[in-house]
Amino acid sequence: MGILLYSLSNPELKSTADPRRSHWKLRLSKPLILCVDDEELGLRVRKMVLESAGYRVLTGIDGAAGLSIFANEPVSAVVLDYYMPGMNGGEVAAEMRRLRPDVPIILLSAYINLPAEVIRLVDCTIVKGDGPEMLLTKVQEMLPRDAGSIDGEVRG
Q1: Using one digit for the tens of pLDDT, what is the confidence trace for 35-56?
Q2: pTM, rounded to two decimals
Q3: How far apart are CA 56 and CA 43, in angstroms?
Q4: In terms of CATH architecture, what is 32-140?
């Protein structure tokens, strides 16, 4: 049996309404994934795929929007398109690494010949035609084993 330490001020920690038992129920939600792509259809499809697997998903329509979300939300992983107007995925990944180097970044591209300096910035690459199974596999591989939905009780 493990020990579970968690802040009582966290809204995820809720008292049960049962007056016969004094305990707390802990619900940790799935990781928050940020998807950034200038193609709205692809962005919506990836959001649906990830949400159907139980992940929470935020989307950004370009690099600047993605960076703003990344800087202000507790993102667990990023799925990032390479070719976008304005800032490309390499520029976005470089800034994300500067802000929070521990957050995994999966780079999407329709092209396989990406610059080596960009590939070094990300944790893995996926070709856009690889399909939803590959995306889900890579996201799962990039996240810590304990990331995910946990239901537990802390008794007092």
Answers
A1: 999 999 999 999 999 999 999 9
A2: 0.76
A3: 14
A4: 3-Layer(aba) Sandwich (3.40)
